[in-house]
Amino acid sequence: MNTKSKPLTKEEIENFGKELEIIRTEILSKVGQEDADHIRKVQATYRYNEIMGRLLIHFSMDPITFALGTSMLGISKILNNMEIGHNVMHGQYDWMNDPEFNSNTFEWDIVSDSSQWKFYHNYMHHTYTNVVGKDHDYGYHFTRLSEEQEWKPVHLFQSIANFFLAFNFEWGVGGHGYKVEYLEKPKKQRTKKTLQDYKEVYNKKIEIQLFKDYIGFPLLGGLMAPKIFLGNLLANTMRNLWTYSIIFCGHFTENAETFTPKDIENETKAEWYLRQLKGSSNLEGSKLFYLMSGHLSHQIEHHMFPDIPAARYEEIAPRLKALCEDYGQHYNNGSFVKQFASVWKRIFAFSLPDPYAEKVMAA
Question: Any bridge partners for residue 259, and if so which?
Fold first, then answer.
């Protein structure tokens, strides 16, 4: 794949890695009360929005109040998934020794089970970022995004399929995720029983989520049940569209590079850092945008330092950008509109056989 970065010697790559370790050490030395206050404030905001959202949906007598309640519930779900769930389950706040923010005990408000997510995302995706065939989050076994992935006629429809995936993103992620640990097992251990065990964990989480939003809360509303059902459905859809958009911009933009298993043989930590840089892409925006994206607006910094509290990425970004300029490395950054458009260009391009995909990508 074409790269916008200058080729580096082994020595330059190792020096690049050493400078990143210095940044990591300095930032980690600052982590403390300010970070604990931040995540507790976000947690309080999430709970306030959920309570107010559900009350407004329940007691709304007009479309405006209903829309306001639905929006507040949707915002609470976004905060729960992005700034709280994603970051807490990366272990960014384990040092607080608070069970509410511990990666071992946290469970979030989507159909993907947290233990399965921590394997296929925290371990597989962050270890093998953009390595085709090893990073199961690269296209989610669903979308072809690189010439390293074999083209099949079904890919002709992936633009349409992705349109529907965006509305149902939590189901796509959860459905793909429960199989990953099974697929990573030696072939002799891949039995129907093993796969069924993983599926039962996923099914249990589905039951909890469906009961809460589509049976439990609606039943509390009595005759208002259909309205509450609809409000919860719209809030979940709002969260799905947002998370799809942010997450797809993280690794599937036009200039995000891919790798093969051979590329990472005997990979050093410094080379791993460089791969995280080349395989990730950032989004520019306001502080509110960064918060609502769970700071995955700074996907590059997140991939280099996944265990550092995400609100610190904005502080790291200028230093990393300057380091990239010193080493002639492309820092993949752009507005949400620009990056999201390039994601869809890539989705469309690789829906076609390689000769046509190359022409679209080159346009």
Answer: 131
The stretch 20-41 carries a mean pLDDT of 98
Mean pLDDT on 67-82:
98
Pair 74, 234: CB distance under 8 Å: yes
Residues 197-221 have a mean pLDDT of 96
From residue 192, how far is each of 96, 170, 179, 195, 341 by CA, in Å?
Answer: 40, 25, 12, 5, 41
Q: Copy the structure tokens of residue 238.
A: 């709002």
- C-alpha distances (whole Å) from 99 to each of 103, 106, 117, 177, 357 are 8, 8, 19, 25, 48
Closest by Cα among 343, 118, 132, 163 to 247: 343
192 half-sphere exposure, CB direction, 13 A CA radius: 0
pLDDT in tens, 110-146: 999 999 999 999 999 999 999 999 999 999 988 999 9
Distance, in Å, from the CA atom of 40 to the CA atom of 84, rounded to the nearest integer, reads: 9
Q: How many Å apart are CA 363 and CA 361, to the nearest integer?
A: 6
Token pair, residue 259, equals 């790798």
72: which 2 tokens?
């507040």
* Residue 258 CB partners (closer than 8 Å, separation 6+): 1, 130, 131, 132, 138, 145, 146, 148, 279
Residue 189, C-beta contacts closer than 8 angstroms, at least 6 positions apart: none
Would you say 167 and 234 are in contact if contact means Cβ atoms under 8 Å apart? no
pLDDT bracket for residue 1 (50, 70, 90): low
pTM > 0.90: yes or no: yes
In the prediction, which pLDDT does 275 show? Answer: 97
Find the Cα–Cα–Cα–Cα dihedral 43, 46, 48, 49, rounded to 10°.
Answer: 170
